[in-house]
Amino acid sequence: MIINGQKLELKELKFMDYIKEKKLKIEFIALELNGKIIPKDEFEALILKENDKAEIVTFVGGG
Length: 63
Known about the structure:
Distance between the termini: 35 Å
Strand content: 35-45%
Shape: globular
Structural class: mainly beta
Helix content: 10-25%
Number of strands: 7
Strand order of the largest sheet: 2-1-7-4-5
Radius of gyration: 12 Å
Largest sheet: 5 strands, mixed
Low-confidence stretches: none
């Protein structure tokens, strides 16, 4: 699988485990998986597979 351009040699990965490992706050991210935007209410059950391509965008406030 590829996450934000980085290839990971895994068969499966629970998306929420990845988010926790990277210390990302779910309320500040958006996920595009294989060209589709995934709603936040699907994050908990989401399992990334071997051939998936994910882009995680983090929103940062400021001025």
